[in-house]
Amino acid sequence: MVEKADVEMEMADNPFEPYIESLRQQLEEQDPVLLIALIVALAVVVITCVFLKYFLSSKTVRSAVLLVGLCESGKTLLFSRLLSGNFKRTQTSITDSSAPYKAKNDRACTWTLIDLPGHDSLRPQYLEKFKSAARAIVFVVDSAIFQKEVRDVAEFLYVLLTDSVISRNGPAILVACNKQDITMAKSAKLIQQQLEKELNTLRVTRSAALSAQDGSIGGSMYLGKKGKDFEFSQLPVKVEFLECSARGSKGEEGEADIQNLEKSLAKL
Ligand SMILES: Nc1nc2c(ncn2[C@@H]2O[C@H](COP(=O)(O)OP(=O)(O)OP(=O)(O)O)[C@@H](O)[C@H]2O)c(=O)[nH]1
Ligand SMILES: [Mg+2]
Fold first, then answer.
1. Same domain, 70 and 201
2. I want to staple 62 with a disulfide (CB 3.0 to 4.6 A). Which of 8, 37, 57, 135 is the partner?
3. Number of domains the chain is built from
4. 77, 80, 141: which to mutate for ligand 1, most atoms within 8 A of CB?
């Protein structure tokens, strides 16, 4: 009498007990191979879902194309030329501007083009704000006065290339050697070679200084391969050098010469 009451109480506690029991019996009668196949299939579905969620969310978040570089390198004029094709008189930027940019490809992908100020005092905070959203970083260089600025250009590029967030996300890095309409402008090849040399020196002094401070190289990564002269090809991110002129050879009334940049942006 007492036992029956106990069973009834247990049934009331767990109303699914009879179903679980019958499922267990059915599973026990099944072929174990079939059971393993079922578990493997289930695991594959779960892993695929998790992977897809991660992959899709990371793709949708990173849709920004950043225009960065030193002051006066031509970012704002490039911004205007890429968006509307028009020439615009510019003033030094003190904040960011952004607008949707339609890539010139069959997929007609739309990215958010963001022009960042190049002034030393503003650069770090704007880079910090947008770096995690970057799908591509267009690093604009004034090729006409490159020789004079090589050290500053290399220092800024070093900050970008050793940033742990940028290294992890791996946006395409396009070094736009701008102002090619000026006779004195250095070629993309020469700029690449000189930057490789400069970065080679810079990584020695930078990592030595940081190691002396706290015994580590902080949140940033080591640039390139240890024990080898630095080359851009050693990096996990793709760095492409291209020539352009936001002004164009015909001046303010003519078109810009930015086809190389547009082609690279079309491949993102
Ligand atoms: N000759 C020539 N001048 C250019 C070219 N691109 C930009 N400029 C000029 O360079 C100057 C600076 O251009 P901006 O676009 O304002 O430079 P920026 O990089 O936005 O500068 P900040 O906002 O200070 O960081 C302007 O007078 C432009 O007209 C180019 O391809 N050729
Ligand atoms: Mg500007």
1. yes
2. 135
3. 2
4. 77
- The confidence score (pLDDT) of residue 216 equals 44
CA of 178 to the centre of ligand 1 (A): 9
- Asked whether residue 76 falls in the same domain as residue 190, the answer is yes
Q: Point out the ligand 1 atom lying closest to the alpha carbon of residue 93.
A: 23
pTM (predicted TM-score): 0.79
Q: Is the pLDDT of residue 117 over 90?
A: yes
User: CA 235, 263, 221 angle in degrees (round to 5)?
Assistant: 15
Q: Name the residue with the closest Cα to ligand 1, atom 30.
A: 179
Q: What is the pLDDT of residues 209-233, one digit of tens each?
A: 665 554 444 456 789 998 899 999 9
Distance 181 CA to ligand 2 centre (A): 19
Report pLDDT for 60: 52
Q: Which has more pLDDT, 154 or 3? A: 154
Cβ distance 58 to 170 under 8 Å? no
Ligand number with the minimum distance to the CA of 246: 1
Whether 86 and 188 share a structural domain: yes
Beta strands in the chain (DSSP E): 64-69, 97-102, 110-115, 134-142, 172-178, 239-243
State whether 113 and 164 are in the same domain.
yes
Would you state the structure tokens that stand for residue 103, as one six-digit string? 């890539």
Residues 186 and 109 reside in one and the same domain: yes
